[in-house]
Specification:
Blueprint lengths: L5 H19 L4 H6 L10 E6 L8 E7 L9 E7 L12 H4 L1 H5 L9 E2 L8 E2 L2 H19 L1 E3 L5 E4 L5 E3 L5 H13 L5 E3 L4
Parallel strand pairs: 8-9
Antiparallel strand pairs: 1-2, 2-3, 4-5, 6-7
The structure holds iron/sulfur cluster.
Iron/sulfur cluster binds next to helix 3.
């Protein structure tokens, strides 16, 4: 006697039934299954990017629907590893492979927000306002706390009250420029997430 689970039994019965009924109607399942399936990404737009999650910085390919036609809103429907990227050569870890979830997450932050001191509410601001505010606060803090010389007269030009953590998704060139910019301001507390 052949051992068969209930699930296998139902599968075999359904296949046999479907096959015999279709054959009676003159339809060949073998020929139908041999048909070329339509490539699901054929009408998508491909965009290169970097995984947002960790310091490895794997390259990704994002595929979106919506070809710019009137009223067609673009939406990312598939993400996979970039085979041409030198870091990951097309592979992604489980976190990277589930990037679509973060893209469509309802709690994903899409724009800068500001919460005034004492307030319990966040308000949306423009990128321009956010960058202006960051620049103003940096300048205020640097002007107030910059150390040009130590007590015994040695020139140090330090700014130790503000730190900077650069993003791992940046390229080597962006990392180099970020480092130069922060060091030229006198910042000592500086690191990159790629090292974390
Ligand atoms: S795919 Fe995985 S290993 Fe690569 S950057 Fe994303 S989280 Fe890191």
């Amino acid at each position: 006697m052949v051992n068969m689970t209930r699930r296998q039994f139902l599968k075999v019965s359904a296949t046999t039934l479907a096959g015999s009924s279709l054959a009676l109607m003159g339809f060949s399942p073998t020929a139908a299954l041999a048909e070329v399936r339509q490539y699901k990404l054929a009408r998508t737009t491909e965009t290169r990017n970097t995984c947002t999650y960790c310091a490895v910085g794997c390259g990704i390919l994002m595929y979106s629907l919506g070809d710019g036609a009137k009223n067609a809103k673009a939406s990312i429907i598939h993400i996979e590893g970039d085979p041409d990227h030198p870091v990951n050569r097309g592979t992604l870890c489980p976190k990277g492979a589930s990037l679509l979830d973060i893209v469509h997450s309802e709690s994903r932050i899409l724009y800068p927000e500001y919460r005034a001191p004492g307030s319990d509410k966040w308000q949306r601001i423009s990128w321009e306002d956010a960058l202006d505010r960051i620049a103003q606060l940096m300048k205020q803090d640097r002007d107030a706390n910059f150390i040009e010389k130590t007590a015994d007269g040695k020139t140090v030009n330090r700014w130790v009250t503000t730190g900077m953590l650069a993003a791992s998704a940046a390229s080597n060139e962006v990392g180099y420029l970020t480092h130069k910019t922060m060091r030229s301001l006198g910042t000592l507390a500086f690191d990159n997430q790629a090292r974390v």
